[in-house]
Amino acid sequence: MDQGVTTRRDGALLVVGDVITDVVARHRGPLAAGTDTVASIRTLPGGAGANVACWAAHAGCADVRLLGRVGADTAAWHERELLSAGVRPRLVVDPEAASGTVICLVDTGAAAERTFLTDSGASLRLEPDDWSDALLDGVARLHLSGYLLFTEPSRALARTALTAARARGVPVSLDPASAGFLTRLGVDRFLAFAEGLDVLLPSRDEACLLTGLPDPADAAAKLSRLVPLVVAKAGADGALVARSGTVPTRIPATPSVPRDTTGAGDAFTGAFLAALLAGADPQEAAAQGCRAGAQAVGRVGARPPIPGSGA
């Protein structure tokens, strides 16, 4: 069975990854160095792993679970936000570190581009002792946030989770998460981990970085010789779906007017995985991912609207 494509439809999605407090500052034009820049600032729940889980639930996945690590300072708030989004959280409270925080600087111009300042805090202090194989009970698909690979304790946890999932025949997906952090980790180290995956969901830039190829389609095809299913997210250019070295299928983007691109890739990933669990083929799942990404960029913040909130 090609586990990257098919799985039983009655199981849960388990996401392992980061839970972060986002401070989103929306400004227009370049930042004024050495003085003030007018901005609209909001504090919102975020984190790539948590965002994926929330978007999967928003896309209709009935049983979404999340393993993450937070500080005592915001543990109760993060748990409430995840529960209200339809996610079943298992949050480890770190006895020493505060919850991770990301400053998201969003230019409110036409592209709504964003720059992140990241303090990972407790989020990447997940360790193998936080894992239990019982977390996989009833799980049909495991998703790992790529941020886990960027510190040794959480990288060890990711290896533990991947090994446990493969022993149970549970397909595993991963989003590389950050081209900047990938460079620091090293492409070879990342690809050695990726050999155990069933699905890889890089951005266009990450796919090119991982292969050294300038064309995203060529990069996706090359990566799919290592990982059976590769879906390269290309923003306004949609997505590329490559399987086992084939020429990628291009999935068009859903038109949108961007306000904040924070979390758009997470929205794609969450909706894509929810669609796979519902029995969609990779192309249709990618189309659903594009629709979720378009919805995400039209909102401020990285999460979907809370059911019943009107937000």
UniProtKB/TrEMBL annotation:
The keyword Kinase applies. Gene3D superfamilies: 3.40.1190.20. The keyword Kinase applies. GO terms for molecular function: kinase activity. Keywords: Kinase, Transferase. InterPro entries: Carboh/pur_kinase_PfkB_CS (IPR002173), PfkB_dom (IPR011611), Ribokinase-like (IPR029056). Residues 13-307 form the Carbohydrate kinase PfkB domain. This is Sugar kinase. It comes from Streptomyces monashensis.
